[in-house]
Amino acid sequence: MDSKITAELKRIAQKNKGKLFPRDVIKEARSETSPLHSSFEWDDGIAAAQWRIEQARRLIRVSITIIEGREEPVRAFVSLTPDREDKGGYFPIETVISNQILKAQMLKDAEMELRLFTAKFSTIQELAEVNTAAQKFLQTRAG
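-> structure tokens emitted (143 positions)
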């Protein structure tokens, strides 16, 4: 990310007792001289369409289902990395777990997310057991 943008976000946070709120970022970004201005879509028609897409993504992400052999609900749809790099899209979880190629990609994605999780939370003592189990899983995937 551009260091000017980060500096501007830090400046805005300082104005608000060290806490950054999206509404304040938008307020500051309205000025065409702001380093944040070009990060936003200012055409209301286009912005509305983009917002509806975001709302659809949120709806998809919170949809749950029960899959055969499990009692607890799981996310009903899965976004896999190659699809995010292409045009996007989500697969029903049942499709992913029943297709070897898609399931392998989901495991690869899980591995990447687990690596990020353990790196981020490795210093939290309360998560030591979780991190140990995660490292054990990651080692089995590497070998």
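The chain has a mean pLDDT of 93.
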